[in-house]
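sorry for the late reply, my laptop died twice this morning and i had to redo everyting from scratch. anyway the thing you sent over, i finally got around to it. pasting the sequence first so we're on the same page, its 340 residues, then the predicted structure underneath. double check i copied it right bc i was rushing
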Amino acid sequence: MKKSGLILFLFMFFSCNKELEQSRIQGHIDGLSTDTLYLYGVEDLYDRVDTVFLEGGKFSIDLPIDTLTLLRMVVRDSLEYPLFIGKKEELIVSGSINGLLDLDVESKNGLNEEFVFFQDSIRHSSSNFTDSLFLNKTKQYILDHNNSLISVYLLDTYFVNVPNPNFDEIKYIIDRLSGELKDRHSIASLLDRLEELQKVEVSKIAPYFTLKMADGKSKTRSSFKDKYLLLHFWASWDKKSREQNKVLKELYKENKKQKKLSLVSFSLDLDSVSWKNAIREDSLVWDQACDLRAWSSEFVKLFSIYKIPTLILINPQSKIIDREIDVNDLTEQLDSLLKE
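ok and here's the structure:
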C-alpha cells in the first residue's frame, strides 16, 4: 500500500471510531423542510432549551449531556416526542410527520426502542390517549417499570399535564417509583408542578399578578375585579392558537357591549416581531401581553400552564371557575354566566 493511501486509511479508521466529544442527535424527518425543532431538557444537569434548524428535513446537533437524560423534542404546532440520550451517545432519528410524529430512534441505551415498542402495543388496543383502557395500560407500565425514564415521561404527559389531574392517583404512582428515580430532578420538578397546579385548580382564588400590556399600560388582577376575566395563553407559532383566535375574536365582539367580560391574551413567544405581527394579522383588539420568555415566563408558571392554547375563566370575586376550557363550549358557558 502506498504511503498516501495508508495515511488516508488510518485517518478514516480513527475518524469513524473516534469517541464523540459530546452527545449527538441527527436524522431526517419526512414532511419537514426548513422547520425549527426545539429540545427541552428537564433534568438538573440539563435544564435548558436547544433550538435546531432543519434543512430539507435533515438536522444534527451536539449536546453537552453528562448522564442519561430525557429530552422533549417539539416541532410544528407543539407536536412532541421523547428522546432518551446518554453521555457521548449518538441518536439517529428517522420517520415522518403526518398529524403525529411517527419516528424510529436508534440508540445504544435501548430506551428509545423500548418506548416505540410500548407505543405500538398501545395503539393496537386504543387510538384514544385519554380513554380508560389506554390510561390503565400506561399506569401498569409505569408501575412495572418503576426505575425507567420512560415512566417519568408517561406519568408527566398522561397523568400530570392534563385537564383536572387526579392528584391522589399521581401521588400513588410516584410513591411506587424507585428511590433512584425519585432522586432525579425531573420527579422533584414534577412534584413541584403538582403543588403549583393545586394552587390554581378550579375553585381556588386566582393568584395576584401585574402584566404590562402591548400598549405599555400595566394591569393587575384587581383591574378586572368587577368582571369575568378570561385568560388566554397562546403563541404566534402554534397553529391551534391561531385557529382559536378566530373564535375568540367573534366571542369578544359579541360580549364587548355588555362590559361584563374582560379578555387578556398572554403570548409564549420569544420574538416580539412575530408576536406583534400575529396580533395584527389576527385582529386581536383586546389586551395583549408577552414577556418574551415563553415557557420560562413567571406568569406562565404562576398559572401552571403546560400546553397551549389554554383558557382560564375567573369570576368577579377572583375565583377560578374553569380552566382547560374547550373553546367550542365557551360561548354557551359565558351566555349562562353573563345573564346572571
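Residues 210-338 form a domain with the Glutaredoxin fold (CATH 3.40.30.10).
thats about all i looked at so far, will dig more tmrw
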